[in-house]
C-alpha cells in the first residue's frame, strides 16, 4: 500500500512540475499560476501545495530542471573535446544555444528571486556550482598553478562575461550582437578570459 501511495505522490509531483515547465516555456515566469498549473496537471490546488509549498518552491523546481538541461547540453557538447580552450569555447556556444532555444526557461532562471529573508536551498546552490565546474575544469588545465580562490573568482568572471554577452544580445540591446558575429565575438571573449 505504501508503495502505491509513493508512486501516486511521485506521479503527482512529476505532472505538476511538467505543467509548470510547460507554462514557463509558453509564457515565461509570469505564466506560473498555482491554480492554472493545478488545472493543467489535472489536480486540485491543494494537491499542488502538498508538493510545492508556494509559487517560489515551484519556480525553484522549474529552475532546477533548467539547470539540469543546461548541464546535459554542456556535457554532451564537450564529451569529445580534449583541448581546454576549445572546451571553454564549446561551453560558451552551448550556453548561447540553450538561451536562444529555451529563452523563457533561461530568463526565468535569472529573473526569479526569492523574497527577502528566504534562503536559497543548499541543493539549488549545489546545482549552480556543478555548472560552474564545467568552466573551472578547463581553466584549471590552462593554469594548474592557480590558487583555488583565484580559480573560483576566474570561473565566476568567465561565466558573468559570457552571460552578459548572451543577455545583451538576446535582449536585442543596441550594443548587442547577433548571428555569426555574436559567435565570433563569443570566441574572442573566451580567448581573452582564458588568458
Automatic annotation (TrEMBL):
Keyword Cytoplasm in record: no
Superkingdom, taxonomy of origin: Bacteria
Entry keyword set: DNA-binding, Transcription, Transcription regulation
GO molecular function: DNA-binding transcription factor activity; transcription cis-regulatory region binding
Domain HTH tetR-type: 10-70
Residue range(s) of DNA binding per entry: 33-52
Pfam families (alphabetical): TetR_C_33 (PF13305), TetR_N (PF00440)
PROSITE patterns: HTH_TETR_2
InterPro entries in UniProt: Homeodomain-like_sf (IPR009057), HTH-type_TetR-like_transc_reg (IPR050109), HTH_TetR (IPR001647), MT1864/Rv1816-like_C (IPR025996), Tet_transcr_reg_TetR-rel_C_sf (IPR036271)
Name the record gives this protein: DNA-binding transcriptional repressor AcrR
Amino acid at each position: 500500500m505504501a508503495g502505491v501511495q509513493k508512486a501516486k505522490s511521485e506521479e503527482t509531483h512529476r505532472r505538476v512540475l511538467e505543467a509548470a515547465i510547460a507554462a514557463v516555456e509558453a509564457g515565461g515566469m509570469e505564466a506560473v499560476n498555482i491554480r492554472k498549473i493545478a488545472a493543467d496537471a489535472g489536480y486540485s490546488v491543494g494537491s499542488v501545495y502538498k508538493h510545492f509549498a508556494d509559487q517560489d518552491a515551484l519556480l525553484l523546481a522549474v529552475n532546477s530542471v533548467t539547470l539540469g538541461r543546461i548541464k546535459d547540453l554542456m556535457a554532451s557538447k564537450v564529451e569529445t573535446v580534449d583541448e581546454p580552450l576549445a572546451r571553454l569555447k564549446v561551453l560558451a556556444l552551448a550556453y548561447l544555444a540553450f538561451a536562444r532555444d529555451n529563452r523563457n526557461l533561461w530568463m526565468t532562471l535569472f529573473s526569479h528571486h526569492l523574497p527577502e529573508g528566504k534562503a536559497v536551498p543548499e541543493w539549488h546552490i549545489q546545482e549552480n556550482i556543478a555548472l560552474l565546474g564545467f568552466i573551472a575544469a578547463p581553466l584549471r588545465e590552462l593554469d594548474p598553478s592557480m590558487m583555488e580562490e583565484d580559480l573560483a573568482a576566474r570561473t565566476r568572471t568567465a561565466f558573468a562575461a559570457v552571460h552578459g554577452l548572451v543577455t545583451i544580445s538576446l535582449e536585442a540591446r543596441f550594443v548587442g550582437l547577433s548571428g555569426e558575429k555574436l559567435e565570433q565575438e563569443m570566441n574572442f571573449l573566451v580567448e581573452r578570459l582564458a588568458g
